[in-house]
């Protein structure tokens, strides 16, 4: 099954052609990508003989999810900085698929917000249909992990009871640069996470600080909505959230997964 294979699965285009999936080489500074024949969510994804230099392709969001499920207030230090309380049950919200962009794509700041914020997060990518999973079997449903930025219009979030608009704007869910597979649930639960704005570290946390762990979150979410292949769960952000302005660049680094970088522009 794809979630048992150790590889970096990316989605990309060449000269604006049809999106395709490939496997990025596993070097510390990867330089090439080899196309996959067929569906990466199939039981036996196969490498083709077609390889490309990474400099010749455009990386997209590594998956095209039917839905992105976000988890709010899942790091105690972030709960404290927001002046809030740890929720009795996981605080969930949805981001539409139209919010998803890939690495290097621009986050657009809408005129409706004066407080655009970054939130660096580890994202879980679902491998196969998952409905009412038990915590002990969650690992069977995970393809791997990618990096996410849960971009938020903080002033809108404070004004509105529901977070749909504050977190669901177009471009408010950068994902990438690829899906790193072969990471166990235990390993994913102790990864360093940093967010940098124009090279300055703003967040410096670790997934070991999660209030509710990855297996608990996936199982909980799967009991109210069926998770489909390629769906994404954002697991929460550590403390240090803050503003983004047009002209800045935000990078999120997650140990053993990768770095996601996006510029910020004004929405036209």
Count of the separate structural domains: 2
CATH architecture name of the largest domain: Alpha-Beta Complex
N-to-C span:
44 Å
**Roughly how much helix do the residues carry, as a percent range?**
10-25%
Low-confidence regions: none
The rounded Rg comes to 17 Å
**CATH topology (fold) name of the largest domain:** Fumarylacetoacetate hydrolase, domain 2
Output the number of helix runs. Answer: 5
Describe this structure in words.
- This protein is mainly beta and 268 residues long.
- It folds into 2 domains: 58 residues, no CATH class; 199 residues, Fumarylacetoacetate hydrolase, domain 2 (Alpha-Beta Complex), CATH 3.90.850.10.
- Helices cover 11% and strands 38% of the residues.
- It is built from 5 helices and 20 strands.
- Strands 1, 2, 3, 4, 5, 6, 7, 8, 11, 12, 14 and 17 form a 12-stranded mixed beta sheet that branches.
- It is globular and about 55 Å long.
- It starts with 7 loop residues before the first strand and ends with a strand.
- The relative contact order is 0.22.
Summary, kept brief:
It contains 5 helices and 20 strands. The protein has 268 residues and is mainly beta.
Detail the topology: elements first, then pairings.
Blueprint: E1 8-13, E2 20-24, E3 32-37, E4 46-53, E5 58-59, E6 68-72, H1 76-81, E7 91-95, E8 100-101, E9 107-109, E10 116-118, E11 120-126, E12 142-149, E13 152-153, H2 154-159, H3 164-168, E14 173-180, H4 185-188, E15 192-197, E16 200-206, H5 214-222, E17 232-234, E18 242-243, E19 249-254, E20 258-266
Parallel strand pairs: 6-17, 8-14, 9-20
Antiparallel strand pairs: 1-2, 1-5, 1-14, 2-3, 3-4, 6-7, 10-13, 10-18, 11-12, 11-17, 12-14, 15-16, 15-19, 19-20
